[in-house]
Amino acid sequence: MDVFGDLFRGIRAHGSLFGSTTLTAPWALHFVDGAPLTLCTVLDGSGWIVPDDGPPEPLGAYETVVVRGPGTFLFVDTPDTTAPPVACGEFCSAPEQGGTTHRLGWADHRAGDTRAATLIVGAYPVHGEISRRLLDALPVVLRVEAGGTGDAVLDHLAAEVARDIPGQQVVLDRLLDWMLVCTLREWFDRPGGEAPAWWAAQRDPVVGEALRLLHADPAAPWTVASLAERTGVSRATLAKRFADLLGEPPLTYLTRWRMTLAADLLVEQKSATVAAVARTVGYADPFGFSAAFKRVRGLNPTEFRRAAAGVAAR
């Protein structure tokens, strides 16, 4: 498991697709859910993404924008559109809500209408502390132009939305996930970009291998010496390269990652004891685990679990 794949594990599309082949100017769709992460891509035509706080972003054919919540945003034909905003949420699929005649298929394209646009949106609920580390690396709005690796995915999306067959939603969900991965990869690798430290570190032959080992088995009794042996360098070399690329020593990184895993386990596995969670993330002593958790998270495990339950109830 690499770092990116690990952070992506709690982000999945699930029946959250909104598509339209009948958006004819003027239009203004207001996506009101405030999803933690929303992917918007245009198959044909063009429009503009207008976030709550930020400048409008043009969106042409085969271009993609990712919007980070909790703010809402508009998809409009032009920034100064005369169309009144139509509130559109997770179940926005009826024509009077800005959607289409067919929930499946969307095969009612008006041939030759140059003012129409085909918009695909995937709204992603983000579960847990793990995936939030990925969100923390993203701006409110990021944009990737056409011509990259995502174009092939969009070809598949264009073909799939034109059909009405069993299992379509499952296929569309997976295509959206694929599209999101391609989009984030290209954005992190853009010339002159400022990708998170862990992104570049994955490609270092030494530090990248150390990260893969830590993420593959975070509960193992890792030491700098054992990591150095597995990566084929001295302890001093590993420690220096790791700190240079990630800004912290290997075992400090491991502790923070273990506490992130533990935070999700405490919330997701309500019947698990603190001792059981401690063992899962590599601590034989629950007291040592609790001390480490409070040092990193600011609360002990029981307090954290209680606070998370209160937030969920609200």
TrEMBL record:
SMART domains: HTH_ARAC. This is AraC family transcriptional regulator. Keywords: DNA-binding, Transcription, Transcription regulation. The keyword Oxidoreductase does not apply. The keyword Lipid biosynthesis does not apply. One of its GO terms (molecular function) is DNA-binding transcription factor activity. InterPro entries: AraC_lig, AraC_XylS_family_regulators, Homeodomain-like_sf, HTH_AraC, HTH_AraC-typ_CS. Pfam families: Cupin_6, HTH_18. It comes from Mycolicibacterium litorale. Residues 208-307 form the HTH araC/xylS-type domain. It comes from the Bacteria.
